[in-house]
TrEMBL record:
Family according to the record: Belongs to the OXA1/ALB3/YidC family. Type 1 subfamily.
Name of the protein this chain belongs to: Membrane protein insertase YidC
Function, as annotated: Required for the insertion and/or proper folding and/or complex formation of integral membrane proteins into the membrane. Involved in integration of membrane proteins that insert both dependently and independently of the Sec translocase complex, as well as at least some lipoproteins. Aids folding of multispanning membrane proteins.
Ranges for domain Membrane insertase YidC N-terminal: 75-351
Organism: Arcicella gelida
Topology versus the membrane: Multi-pass membrane protein
Lineage of producing organism: Bacteria, Pseudomonadati, Bacteroidota, Cytophagia, Cytophagales
Transmembrane segments: 365-385, 428-451, 487-505, 525-548
Lineage: superkingdom: Bacteria
Quaternary state and interactors: Interacts with the Sec translocase complex via SecD. Specifically interacts with transmembrane segments of nascent integral membrane proteins during membrane integration.
Gene3D superfamilies given in the database record: 2.70.98.90
Length: 617
C-alpha cells in the first residue's frame, strides 16, 4: 500500500509529464497537409477560371478580347434620380428614385428611397447579330474616362462607355442625364463592325421582376406592359390582371414600350426608327410575395440606326404622374389611366388642372378634396336647383296623380296614359328632373376612374387614414367576406351612411311614381350598400370625396328648399293649365309630343271600337 508521499510523487510525475507533453515536447507540423489542400484548391480555382475564360471568349466570338475584365461602377444623379452604371456591359445597373419610398418603409416611418430598377432583379440586354452568333453586350467589359457626379439644375451631363476592338472597330454607349427629371438618354453607336455583323435586327431584351411598392398586394400585381404603335399612334396594353399570364406579339412598328406599375413607370422610347417588332409578356407570380409579377419585352431594333449613329433612345424611370409624363413622347401620358375616353375631357381639363391649382393652396390633401368637392358641387348648383324645382312640381301634382290611380285602378297602361295627359295640360316634363341628375353622372364616373390612378394622393395622410391612395382600415377581420375583404374601411362606412341619408332625404321630397317595375325609393337604400362592397378596398381619398359630396348635396337641397316657394310654383302650373287649354301658350316640345301620342292612342282606340276585328288579342 502506497503512503501519502508516494501518491504525491506519482501525481507530480503525471503533472510533469502532462506539462511536458503540452508545453515542451516538439510539435508535429500539421501545416503541410492543409498546404497541399490549399494548393490543390488554388489550382482548382485557377483551372475553373481558365475554363470560364475560355468559355467566355468562345461565347464572345470576335469580341473575345473584351470578355475578361474588372467591373467598375459609375454614378450619375440629379435632384430626382440616382443612376448607377457598370463598365461590365456599359449598362444601367440600378436606378433609385430619391423622393419616393415604398409603402413598407413609409408605414415603418423609415425613409428608404425607392429602387425602380435593380440588376439583382431586372435586366436590360443588347444582343448584336454577329456572323458567329448573337453577342450579349452585358457580358463585355467597356472602358470609360467619365467621372459621373451630380448634375446641376439647368445642366446636362454625359457618361460614355467604349469598347475598342481592332483599329477602327468600336462600340460606344453614351448616357445623358439632365439636372432634373426622370429621363435618361442612351445613344448606341457601332463603328467599323460591318464585317463582323449580320444584316439582322439588334435584340433588346428587357425584364423586370416587380416588387411591391404599395399596400394592396392585389393592386401591385396588376402591373402590365403598355405600348404605342408608331404608325397610327394607337395605345394599347396587356390586360391588368393580378393572376395568370398575358402575352402578345406585336408585328407592327412600335414607338415605345413601358412597364406600368400602380404608381410608377419604366419606359423605353425610340427617337428615330421605331421598334420593328416585339413580344411582350406579363406573368403574375401568385405565390411569391417579393417578385410578385414578371414583365418582359423582347424587342427588335434597326441595326442600321446603330451603325449610322442614330441609335438614339430614351429611358423613363419615374412616377406615373400625368403632369410629368404627358410631354415625354407622343401618347406617353396614356400610361396614366385618367378615365374612359367618354369621360376623358372632364378628368384632363377639369380635375387635373383643379388639382394642380389646389395643390398650390393646400398642403393637406384631405382639405384639398373638400375644396375640390365644393368647387364641383357649386359649379353644378344650377343643375341641382333645376332638378329640385322639377321634383317640387311633381310633388304639387301628386294629389292629381293619386286621383288618377284611384280612378283607373291597377291598369298600368291607363295610369301612364292619364299621367302623360296631365303633364301635357300643365306643361311639365317628368324628364326635367332626371336630366340634371344624369348630367352630373359623368363627374361621379370621372372621380371613380381618376382617384385610383392619381399619384398625388400617394402616402398623403388625413385623419385616421395614413395613405389616401389606398384603403383606410380601422379594423382587420379574422376572416374574409366575399367581395368585401378582410378589413373595415371607415371612410367607406361614412360614405355609405351619407348615401343612405341622402336617399332618405330625397325620398321625402320625391313623389311616388306609378307603373314602375322597380321601387326606386327602395333602391335608394339598396344601392349604397352594394356600393359599400365595391368601395371597401378602393382609395380612401375617393370614399372621402363621395362622403363630402353627399353632405354638400344634402346641404344644397335643404338650402334650395327654403329658397323655393312651392305656392308660387303651384300658381304657375295653374296659369299654364289655363293658357294651354285656351291655346294662349305655345306648348313645349314634350307637351307637343305627349299630345301627338295621346291623339294616336285615341284614334287607335276609336278604330278598334268601330271594327272589333282589329282589336288586339
Amino acid at each position: 500500500m502506497m503512503d501519502k508521499n508516494q501518491v504525491t510523487g506519482l501525481l507530480l510525475i503525471m503533472a510533469m509529464l502532462l506539462g511536458y507533453q503540452f508545453f515542451l515536447a516538439p510539435k508535429v507540423e500539421p501545416e503541410k497537409a492543409p498546404e497541399k489542400a490549399k494548393v490543390t484548391q488554388t489550382s482548382t480555382a485557377a483551372k475553373v477560371t481558365t475554363v470560364d475564360s475560355v468559355a467566355l471568349k468562345a461565347a464572345a466570338g470576335d469580341f473575345a478580347s473584351a470578355a475578361i475584365g474588372t467591373a467598375q461602377e459609375l454614378v450619375l444623379e440629379n435632384k430626382d434620380i440616382k443612376v448607377v452604371f457598370s463598365t461590365l456591359g456599359g449598362k444601367v445597373k440600378q436606378v433609385l428614385l430619391k423622393n419616393y419610398e415604398t409603402y413598407n418603409s413609409f408605414a415603418a416611418q423609415k425613409k428608404e428611397p425607392l429602387l425602380i430598377f435593380d440588376e439583382a432583379f431586372d435586366k436590360i440586354t443588347f444582343e448584336l447579330p454577329t456572323t458567329k452568333g448573337n453577342v450579349d453586350l452585358n457580358k463585355l467589359y467597356f472602358n470609360t474616362s467619365s467621372k459621373g457626379g451630380v448634375v446641376a439644375e439647368g445642366q446636362t451631363q454625359k457618361v460614355s462607355f467604349i469598347l475598342n476592338l481592332a483599329s477602327g472597330q468600336s462600340i460606344e454607349q453614351t448616357y445623358t442625364l439632365a439636372g432634373e427629371g426622370f429621363l435618361l438618354d442612351q445613344d448606341v453607336k457601332l463603328q467599323g463592325l460591318d464585317g463582323l455583323l449580320k444584316n439582322e435586327s439588334v435584340k433588346l431584351n428587357w425584364l423586370e421582376n416587380v416588387r411591391p411598392t404599395e399596400k394592396d398586394l392585389t393592386e401591385n400585381r396588376k402591373a402590365t406592359v403598355n405600348y404605342l404603335l408608331n404608325e397610327d399612334e394607337e395605345f394599347d396594353q396587356l390586360a391588368e390582371t393580378p393572376t395568370g399570364s398575358k402575352e402578345e406579339s406585336l408585328e407592327k412598328p412600335v414607338k415605345w414600350v413601358s412597364f406600368k406599375k400602380k404608381y410608377f413607370l419604366s419606359g423605353f422610347i425610340t427617337k428615330n426608327a421605331p421598334i420593328q417588332k416585339a413580344n411582350i409578356v406579363a406573368t403574375a407570380n401568385e405565390t411569391d410575395s417579393v417578385n410578385i409579377k414578371t414583365l418582359r419585352a423582347n424587342m427588335d431594333l434597326d441595326l442600321a440606326d446603330l451603325k449610322s449613329g442614330k441609335g438614339n433612345y430614351q429611358w423613363y424611370f419615374g412616377p406615373n404622374d400625368y403632369n410629368i409624363i404627358k410631354n415625354v413622347a407622343p401618347g406617353f401620358g396614356k400610361n396614366v389611366k385618367l378615365s374612359y375616353d367618354i369621360f376623358l375631357p372632364i378628368t384632363r381639363y377639369v380635375f387635373v388642372p383643379l388639382f394642380n391649382v389646389l395643390e398650390t393652396v393646400f398642403n393637406n390633401y384631405g382639405l384639398l378634396i373638400i375644396a375640390l368637392v365644393l368647387i364641383i358641387k357649386f359649379a353644378l348648383l344650377p343643375l341641382t336647383y333645376k332638378s329640385y324645382v322639377s321634383m317640387a312640381k311633381m310633388r304639387i301634382l301628386q294629389p292629381e296623380l293619386n286621383a288618377i290611380k284611384e280612378k283607373v285602378g291597377d291598369d298600368a297602361a291607363a295610369q301612364q296614359q292619364a299621367q302623360m295627359k296631365l303633364y301635357g295640360e300643365v306643361g311639365v316634363s317628368p324628364l326635367s328632373g332626371c336630366i340634371p341628375v344624369l348630367a352630373t353622372m359623368p363627374v361621379l364616373m370621372a372621380v371613380f376612374m381618376l382617384f385610383p390612378n392619381l399619384i398625388n394622393l400617394r402616402q398623403q395622410s388625413f385623419l385616421w387614414a395614413n395613405d389616401l391612395s389606398t384603403f383606410d382600415s380601422i379594423a382587420n377581420l379574422p376572416f374574409s367576406i366575399p367581395l368585401y375583404g378582410n378589413h373595415i374601411s371607415l371612410f367607406t362606412l361614412l360614405m355609405t351612411v351619407s348615401s343612405i341619408a341622402y336617399g332618405y332625404y330625397n325620398n321625402q321630397n320625391t313623389p311616388d311614381q306609378t307603373g314602375q317595375p322597380i321601387d326606386m325609393k327602395k333602391m335608394a337604400y339598396i344601392t349604397p350598400v352594394i356600393f359599400m362592397f365595391v368601395m371597401n378596398s378602393l382609395p380612401a381619398g375617393m370614399s372621402f370625396y363621395y362622403f363630402v359630396s353627399n353632405l354638400v348635396t344634402i346641404g344644397q337641397q335643404i338650402g334650395i328648399r327654403k329658397f323655393v316657394d312651392e305656392d308660387k310654383i303651384k300658381a304657375v302650373l295653374e296659369e299654364n293649365r289655363k293658357k294651354i287649354a285656351a291655346g294662349g301658350v305655345k306648348k313645349s316640345r314634350f307637351s307637343e309630343y305627349i299630345s301627338k301620342q295621346m291623339k294616336a292612342v285615341e284614334e287607335t282606340q276609336k278604330a278598334q271600337q268601330a271594327d272589333p276585328k282589329k282589336k288586339k288579342k
